[in-house]
Amino acid sequence: MSLSTHSLVRPFAVAALFAATLTACGKQETPAPSPAPAPAPAAASSAPTPTPAPAPAAANEASATTAQESKPLKIAFAYIGPVGDGGWTYAHDNGRKALEAALGDKVQTKYVESVPESADAERILRGFAAEGNDIIFGTTFGYMDYMVRLAQDFPNVKFEHATGYKTAGNLATYDSRTYEGAYLAGIIAGGMTQSNVVGVVGSVPIPEVIRNINSFTLGAQSVNPKITTKVVWVNEWFNPPKETEAATSLINSGADILFQNTDSAAVLKTAQDQGKRAFGWDSDMTAYGPKAHLGSAVINWGPYYIKTAQDAVNGNWSSGQHWWGVKEGAIDIVSLADDIPQEIKDKVAQAKQGLKDGTFSIWKGPIVDQEGKEVLTADQVADDGFLLGIKFYVKGVEGKVPGAN
């Protein structure tokens, strides 16, 4: 998936033009309260028992506050794909489980999987709000307008939208800097390719995905300037048969290493079946193709989910736009293959450390597009506004961006 997974469009500042191109349940039971101890018998007395005075109003209010604070924070998640997709949705559900493990009985979570980006999404999200959930996470870009509408209808509910760009007083957006994981994977691809041709299976042609394709290419070219990247679009986030077909097409056109911005493990499986190499995406996909697997660019949603819920518990939650990456522990590349040369692993580690401490920027000029036009001048570092609006291919990526002039 995938601001993702997954999105979809997963970037939270996607231009409206690109937005137009997009078109169960696991609960943590709350322990039953232990019965209150019986009161001790009153001492014998010949005096009449006085009628107790009414409790002061302040005491009643304090009691009500304590009771309210003792209730778990109810949190609901709407997932775009199945929990078992091995990628975007699987990563989100791992984040939900990390939240439960971290906050224990302070939270109670539930989810509904395979919620389409349609009116069904609004029905399910509205149901979450009506049944009293305190925070609702929508994990794909296509839920955006529904969540904006629901935020108005339920002002006391906190809404969190993955990869969107519209906010309100009770609606925040969040995303992960997946392009950082793509760049790290690119370094490995550049060091491992024999054909100098790498392939990418793209999901939906929006800035987030285009940014990832470009970043993967830049990473590969940092090691091997001869790299060219071929792209096949499937125009869906999760469709294993289409992903398999696209991967096969890329291999037939000369790509010996495959990358993806789709949600299933089909690309990695196809690479293994055809004797090529590939990467996992969003989650660690090693098990789906251990012989083909070079590494997995993963998203860890746990830190964000934990912080968001803890802020709500503490009364500190606020709206805003949040974009986390390697620095915040949200992006990594894991399970690197044993046959990757140590010098390439060292380059990955160096880039990762630079992203973590801010000494390295992936999008630093000079960078040119595929037509040779300079999009970033020498030493110019792209800001988030630039990154969130990318609609072009960098030099080395073949073909045209769908929908571009």
UniProtKB/TrEMBL annotation:
InterPro entries tied to this protein: ABC-Purine-Binding, PnrA-like
UniProt region (Disordered), positions on chain: 27-66
Signal peptide (UniProt feature, chain positions): 1-26
Record-linked CDD domains: PBP1_BMP-like (cd19963)
Gene3D superfamilies per UniProt: 3.40.50.2300
Keywords: Signal
Keyword Ribosomal protein in annotation: no
Any one Gene Ontology cellular component term annotated for this protein: plasma membrane
Pfam families referenced in this protein's UniProt entry, alphabetically: Bmp (PF02608)
Annotated Low complexity bias: 56-66
Domain ABC transporter substrate-binding protein PnrA-like: 74-349
Protein name: BMP family ABC transporter substrate-binding protein
Organism: Lampropedia puyangensis
